[in-house]
Write a structure and sequence with these properties.
signal, eight-stranded mixed β-sheet, alpha+beta, DUF6491, 10 strands
Length: 157
């Protein structure tokens, strides 16, 4: 029995040591939570596109302002991206949302999987959109961009 007792005491001491080194749930709740990466977004608001630059068959840079650029990662199968000169980007009420919106080129529709800020190396290499590479916003058919006013009563405006 003394051996079992000493083993039990050793296990109890180890558990006590582990418990003192492990933060409690209250301590963990008080610690600041790390925010999602500032360079990654679920959606971005856009009013106008200023051009684009293909990086490879699944990534492109999209200028949403003269100096505001986003890297879009697309679904597999956009093999014509490097050869395209014009693209359309679908929007939902002027927001590009990952998983919903697409980049359309010719007959291909590529779902946007990620929206991130490009790293400094890419920003330096591509400081502005490639000349002649046109991008246009394409609203979803069921979400009008501007509300249609009701007709005037009695023909008055």
């Amino acid at each position: 029995m003394p051996r079992a007792t000493s083993l039990l005491l050793a296990v109890s001491a180890s558990l006590a040591l582990l418990a003192s080194a492990t933060p409690s749930l209250a301590q963990v709740a008080d610690e600041p939570q790390t925010p999602p990466s500032a360079s990654s977004r679920q959606q971005i608001r856009v009013a106008k596109l200023f051009g684009w630059q293909p990086l490879d068959d699944q990534n492109l840079l999209l200028w949403t302002g003269k100096e505001e650029v986003w890297q879009l990662s697309l679904s597999y199968g956009c093999d014509g991206l490097k050869r395209a000169r014009a693209i359309s980007v679908t929007t939902d009420r002027r927001h590009i949302k990952i998983g919903k919106d697409r980049v359309q080129l010719d007959d291909k529709r590529c779902t946007i999987l990620a929206l991130t800020l490009p790293d400094e190396k890419l920003k330096k290499r591509y400081s502005k959109a490639r000349k002649g590479y046109v991008a246009e916003l394409l609203p979803w058919p069921d979400t009008p961009e501007t509300p249609v006013p009701p007709p005037a009563a009695n023909g008055s405006a």
